[in-house]
Design goal:
- It is built from one helix and no strands.
- It has a domain of 26 residues.
- With 40 residues, it is mainly α.
- Helices cover 68% and strands 0% of the residues.
Length: 40
């Protein structure tokens, strides 16, 4: 009487890709802001 349990295994590879892109953009903007704070 054991029911077959379906595993919930969604694919989140696109989320990881988007998070990496957001991190790269945020880091580069932060570096630009720090650089501008020294120049201006």
């Amino acid at each position: 009487m054991a029911k077959k349990k379906r595993e919930f295994n969604p694919d989140y590879s696109y989320v990881i890709k988007d998070l990496k892109r957001i991190g790269i953009i945020a880091g580069s903007l932060l570096v630009i802001l720090i650089g501008l704070s020294f120049i201006l």
